[in-house]
Design a protein that fits this description.
The protein is an alpha/beta fold and about 300 residues long. It contains 9 helices and 10 strands. A hairpin with a 4-residue loop joins strand 4 and strand 5 (about 155).
Length: about 300
């Protein structure tokens, strides 16, 4: 294997171009070279776990606003540019059920299931079937959904992902990827005002937890390795998530029928994530292959390898 400096030089140009595309006037990346070097080391760790003629399936998780999409995009960039690999990256968000399906669930099961995000609002059958095809002997073309948050629905099928050949590496990133279910007694006490007022019978909590115990657990077991981005606390995630929504506004100008949230809507939205996110603060490290600890400035403070 070549030196990290060689890999750094191969990826540097595209890395800087990507980072620049993610920056705004008030939100800049700092210590870029150090960030790239750290993620090259993560990439080398990933390469060492690859097996001949088999797809390595990576799960990458972290609370809202931790930079999962950014980190996974940079890892893909490095793996493609420095190591010449075929890498497919997708977010668990792309597997959200359609708005029509969630409206139906909200009427049949619980009103909170209209809000995308929690386990039970994804079509896990797509994920499981995709992973099975990746692990099978023969690979045929796969079509996977693509979700547009600005309209809170899937895009038309002609814009879906089309994977024609077996990837060397697949990265599935998402806030609840790798999450474990809670025990029954942990569900009893509401974690915030939303649970207290809108789920006083625990029906929503129990349904979400049941999903984690079943189909989510099934595809989590199919992951070959699990990377976790750990923030300091939930308050920090709120701050980062609000910044993320402001960026969405900047990138979505002149579009009609946008479903972009204001501050109060974002904070309410995050209440639906809070239980599992805080549970992952305590439990995700146990199952993680790599833990990237983030500081208050959104930078990778240190990386812990298992």
């Amino acid at each position: 294997m070549q030196s990290t400096e060689v890999y750094f030089n191969k990826a540097k140009k595209d890395f800087y171009k990507f980072v620049k595309s993610q920056e705004t006037k008030t939100d800049k990346f700092y210590n870029k070279d150090l960030m790239l070097k750290k993620l090259i080391l993560v990439s080398i760790w990933i390469i060492k776990r690859m097996k001949k003629n088999k797809t390595l399936i990576i799960g990458l998780a972290g609370g809202q606003g931790t930079g999962k999409t950014t980190i996974s995009s940079i890892l893909k960039l490095i793996l493609v540019k420095s190591f010449s690999l075929n890498v497919f990256k997708i977010s668990i968000d792309d597997f959200y059920k359609s708005r029509k399906e969630r409206i139906k669930m909200s009427k049949l099961i619980h009103p909170l299931l209209l809000t995308r995000g929690v386990p039970g609002t994804h079509d896990t059958n797509y994920i499981i079937d995709f992973f099975k095809k990746l692990k099978g002997k023969k690979f045929s073309t796969v079509n996977l959904p693509k979700f547009d948050k600005s309209i809170d629905d899937r895009v038309k099928k002609n814009r879906w992902y089309k994977i024609k050949s077996r990837p060397d590496i697949v990265i599935l990133e998402g806030w609840c990827v790798g999450a474990s279910p809670q025990k029954k007694n942990q569900l009893l006490r509401p974690i915030n005002i939303l649970e207290k007022k809108e789920d006083n019978l625990l029906k929503w909590r129990k349904y979400v937890n049941f999903q984690l115990k079943n189909k989510y657990k099934k595809f989590h077991k199919m992951l070959d390795c699990f990377l976790y981005l750990k923030a300091k606390n939930f308050s920090m995630l709120k701050k980062w998530r609000l910044k993320q929504e402001r960026k969405l506004v900047l990138n979505s100008k002149n579009k009609k029928n946008l479903k972009i949230m204001n501050k109060n809507e974002v904070l309410r939205f995050m209440m639906t994530y809070q239980r599992i996110t805080e549970h992952m603060f305590k439990t995700a490290e146990r199952n993680a292959s790599i833990v990237m600890k983030l500081n208050n400035k959104h930078q990778i403070l240190n990386i812990k390898y298992k």
